[in-house]
Automatic annotation (TrEMBL):
PROSITE patterns listed in its UniProt record: HTH_LYSR (PS50931)
UniProt keyword annotation of Transferase present: no
Source organism per UniProt: Malonomonas rubra DSM 5091
PANTHER family noted in UniProt: HTH-TYPE TRANSCRIPTIONAL REGULATOR, LYSR FAMILY TRANSCRIPTIONAL REGULATOR
All residue ranges annotated as the HTH lysR-type domain in the record: 1-58
GO molecular function (one): DNA-binding transcription factor activity
Identification of the protein by name: Transcriptional regulator, LysR family
Keywords: DNA-binding, Transcription, Transcription regulation
Family: Belongs to the LysR transcriptional regulatory family.
Amino acid sequence: MDTRYLKTLVATVKCGSFSKAAEKLHLTQSAVSQRVKFLEERFGHKLIDRAGSKLALTSAGELVMESAQRVLAIQDTLIRDLQRLHNKQRISLCCTPTFGTVFLPRVLNSFMMGTSRSTDLKFIFNSPDAAIEGVRNHEFDLAVVEHCCETDISEFNTCDLPDDELAFVSSPSLNLPSPKLDLDTLLTMRLLSRKDGCSSKKLVRAGLESYGKQLEDFNGVVTSDDLHLTCQTVLAGGGVSFMSKDMVKEYLENGQMLAHEVKGFTHRRNRTVIFSAERGEDQLVQSFVNCIFSVMGRPLPFA
């Protein structure tokens, strides 16, 4: 049996709907539904209860789900072992766009300069939740994420990086007071926002909710997952954005942008390296993690 069908079942259950699983797997909703249906016909049992608002496993589905996760884990291990036969290393990383844009190029350079053996590298930018799920499902060896403090990563091995400091940023042409900015003035601006799932957007929502406000109270909201486009729009005076100060450090230092803090909003988030317990002893993973800490000027976690 093609393990893609098992992977689809696992994704569907974890996402809670066919539509969300389709988005995660880059498939159509119909294709996801057909793959699950194929498994049900293959095993002769209904695997998913579709009656409720959220998909749920049947008793047979729980058995198949448990076995599917074991099969997929075995497949990942087999692939890594076969790669080692050819003396070729492999490492896959998922990180948030902020870390990937600001730090990853230097991390890659440091890692490649210090690695003598041939190595296959895979790097994907995604939201914190997607990165964490990817490590959980063995799609990635490790992830680097900026995340809210309530995010549960207790099941993984982790290495804590310095917190990421955020601020609302604007062009001086907007004449907004800095560093302190009141909410009423902020809401007169257009907000340049990240997509749902990004921790910066979660923090903005939480800050607004503390005042009984919501995103719709801004004078317009533009959602984009292109950090470069967001920065250029802020520079042009097209609105304000809640961003990592690391992302706009140069613009803040040369005065092209101003940073603003709003009372009641959280302006810091955690930044963490996560990896599965089975990869924790892998020297390649340890070496990559050390490169991350070296680039960020922190003591190396693995001697």
